[in-house]
Design a protein that fits this description.
- The protein has two domains: about 10-100, Helicase, Ruva Protein, domain 3 (Orthogonal Bundle); about 115-305, 3-Layer(aba) Sandwich (Rossmann fold).
- It contains twelve helices and nine strands.
- It has helices spanning about 10-15, 20-35, 45-60, 65-70, 75-90, 95-100, 120-130, 155-160, 175-185, 220-225, 245-255, 275-280; strands spanning about 105, 110, 145, 165-170, 195, 210-215, 260-270, 285-290, 300.
């Protein structure tokens, strides 16, 4: 868990004495961020968006109210709170989602802290269309599994996309499941989403699902060693996939057929590992699903095509 610290750069509060309005603070934050070698990659697309979101969240204002309050004058204590969180973003390279304990996937927002990776998944895009056309009738999905659930974000999206489904959400990390339980309660889904502490399929013997989704750890060792500081705040267990990044992916592909119904589907995100998957499983008939970033990041395999 994170704790509020005094700024490492004491001059930021002194400089802040000349800032009066929200507009002043936003301009200051953008300039400070632009010269601070920050890495973006946790949901907000630009320095401007990060600065605006941090400021509005700290002031307990909705982001869509920015224009309304742009020329509002802040109190001294409000200004100091904003400057402290701006300084933490720079000095600690702390991702915005951890500073605010809030992350978004589409129209859904989730509580997050450093016990889970910050939600980001192309599977979330695919769930917006209920996996059409691969799932012909969403009401035929009666059971679903979210393997490596983390914050529970994809399990919650599953529940909204497939209204008849009972969902198991599995993670090896009890800390992650504690965070997932917060989000599941926030969405009033405790009766439909069952949290399970398990190393992949270990405690799921005999259970089968119409749909299995997973966004597992898939970062290879070389990439792990080169991660920007922002990513080092995230739990390594949720990112590191072994030497080639495919340790967990291999295990899922090996065992998934035993946990799918006859017409079941496996949907799995694999990062930049398409060529490695195709080389390791040349006979596996993967369907690569189209996302906003291309068709090389999420695979779909029918149960009948999986190794048994």
């Amino acid at each position: 868990m994170t704790h509020t610290r005094q700024p490492n750069n004491p001059t930021i509060l002194q400089a802040g004495e000349e800032l009066r309005t929200l507009r002043d603070l936003l301009r200051f934050a953008i300039s400070y961020f632009n010269r601070s070698d920050l890495f973006l990659g946790h949901g907000l697309p630009s320095i401007y968006d990060e600065a605006a979101f941090l400021i509005m969240h700290t002031l307990h204002l909705s982001s869509d109210q920015l224009d309304l309050f742009m020329d509002a004058t802040l109190t001294g204590s409000e200004r100091d709170q904003v400057l402290r969180i701006i300084e933490r973003r720079v000095s600690e390279k702390m991702p915005v989602a951890y500073l605010t304990h809030e992350a978004w996937l589409g129209d859904f927002n989730f509580y997050v802290d450093e016990r889970v990776i910050i939600p980001r998944s192309f599977i979330a895009e695919l769930l917006q269309d209920r996996l059409s056309p691969w799932v012909a009738d969403p009401y035929d999905v009666n059971s679903a599994l979210d393997l490596c659930t983390g914050s529970g974000c994809l399990a919650i999206l599953l529940a909204h996309s497939f209204e008849q489904a009972q969902i198991d959400a599995v993670d090896i990390s009890s800390d992650a499941l504690d965070v997932a339980s917060i989000n599941i309660r926030n969405y009033d889904l405790t009766s439909r989403i069952n949290l399970i502490h398990s190393d992949l399929f270990t405690t799921l013997q005999g259970k089968r699902y119409d749909l299995l989704i997973s966004n597992p750890p898939y970062v290879n060792a070389t990439s792990m060693a080169m991660l920007p500081e922002e990513y080092r705040h995230e739990p390594a267990i949720a990112l590191a996939g072994g030497l080639d990044g495919l340790d967990v992916v291999h295990q899922i592909l090996k065992e998934a057929a035993d946990h799918l119904t006859e017409d079941g589907l496996l949907i799995m995100e694999i990062g930049h590992n398409q060529s490695e998957i195709e080389q390791a499983f040349p006979q596996l008939p993967c369907t690569w699903l189209e996302t906003s970033a291309g068709s090389q990041f999420v695979l779909m395999i029918r149960r009948c095509d999986l190794p048994t």
